Amino acid sequence: MFKLSEIKELIKLVDQSSLQELEIENEGARLSIRKPNKVEPLYVSAPVQHTYAPVGQPNYTNTAPAAAALEVPVTANGQAKQEDSSLHKIVSPMVGTFYQSASPGSAPFVSVGSKVTDKSVVCIVEAMKLMNEIEAEVKGEIVEILVENGQLVEYGQPLFLVRPE
């Protein structure tokens, strides 16, 4: 058994030495003395915000001006489709899987020609097993659905074109 004065003396010796830990066993009694860990200063830098271009839309510099003329969207009847700057794009707020309906057997939330309000749910984007309802954000008419049901979508990728009222 250790006497209180011996324990105090051992604590002083450990404290003044470079030892971090001391264990002693004497006549069946065991004594363990540890210095507290030194807390090193932790330096934290501000988070870096990265911006990524959506997949499928590479951000190339002007390497082939003639190629841009070839990329004109075409409608089903073969006529060139005009980009309408008045159309509102509903974009994906996250990376995930696009679903047009709440379940595989149910009707889609919207189709081309559907009237929507700013609070109308237009689709679901599944991310990490969570189903996130996406709202139209604008009152108007669905002009085009830009992605297929079950397709993976990227953050910022256009999902629908809406003609605002």
Q: How would you sum up the global shape? A: rod-shaped
> Compute the gyration radius: what is it?
33 Å
Number of strands: 10
Portion of residues within helices: 10-25%
Distance between the termini: 89 Å
Give the structural class: mainly beta
Count of individual helical segments: 2
Q: What's the story with the biggest beta sheet?
A: 4 strands, antiparallel
Mean pLDDT metric: 78
Strand order of the largest sheet: 3-10-8-5
**Strand proportion:** 25-35%
Order of helices and strands: HEEHEEEEEEEE
Unreliable runs, pLDDT <50, ≥5 residues?
63-81
Notable features of this structure?
single chain, 165 residues, mainly beta, four-stranded antiparallel β-sheet, 2 helices
